[in-house]
Design brief:
Two copies of one chain form a homodimer.
Chain A: H1 4-19, H2 26-33, H3 37-49, E1 53-56, E2 62-65, H4 74-81, H5 103-120, H6 124-129
Antiparallel strand pairs in A: 1-2
Helix pairs in contact in A: 1-2, 1-3, 1-4
Chain lengths: ~160, ~160
């Protein structure tokens, strides 16, 4: 149901949210998210074009989130790479239906609306703050290095 | 979010549910559902392989639903053509996660679970019985002919 592009974009943004406000390099993101670099570069370009990340070249450069993790929702990331398309009008183009969806398309759109609402109500900061034994992207040696050389918390 | 194959399969099954227990020909289904015949044939083959419809050749033949509309759910139709894939284990293959999803994948799977539950709880008969001004597939001249020559109800 979720494309690989959506999955990869979310992983990259989760990584950057952990790093925020610091930048991450493509190498670091690729390593932590297990996304192949060429694919990752395309995903990051896409996220850049849609205002989710910005890139800075040179020493000390890298990729950063445009918004703070407190203000960035899952939905914004999903919509940046593959907009969650609601069913706004009858897919058959039936004139008598129009925006008045039939029960079939209404059920399908209701499911999409619920997903949209769930993703809109969750920020990246909330994801990272959630008490869990499975911290996003964290698996011992693959854990990205922290600011100030802090040891990662035990998850 | 929903592929064209899923959309087309659901339209075809809605048509056949209206016809049930009578059969519909591919020409009739194609006309009513606005699905091109070659694509429709593939979708019907897929639905046939997965036990949703059966086909009978010859005079009086056609395509019928295997189950009654009262017993057939939207989820069964979706899963027959493009299984709704839940996130069962960590997509990154992190050993420390396994079936214990991180908050990101938990949110994504929760959304899929809600969709699955909604589709599992809705039968084709319920869709067709729902009071609405937009009856599935119905738009005047495209309405499939009814059994016994009944005039279609005014929707």
């Amino acid at each position: 149901m979720f494309s690989q592009t959506v999955e990869y974009a979310l992983r990259a943004v989760v990584f950057l949210a952990e790093r925020a406000p610091d930048a991450g390099t493509t190498d670091e993101i690729s390593l932590a998210t297990q996304v192949p670099k060429p694919y990752l570069s395309k995903v990051l370009q896409n996220l850049g074009r849609n205002g989710i990340v910005r890139s800075q070249r040179g020493i000390g450069g890298g990729v950063t989130l445009v918004k703070s993790p407190q203000d960035l929702t899952i939905l914004e990331v999903v919509n940046a790479v593959e907009p969650l398309q609601r069913i706004a009008v009858c897919p058959l183009g039936l004139k008598s239906h129009g925006k008045n969806l039939c029960p079939l398309h209404k059920r399908m759109d209701d499911a999409l609306a619920a997903m949209e609402a769930s993703f809109r109500s969750t920020t990246l900061a909330e994801l990272l703050a959630e008490p869990t034994s499975s911290h996003p992207l964290c698996d011992g040696p693959k854990l990205p290095s922290r600011k100030n050389g802090d040891a990662p918390a035990v998850h």
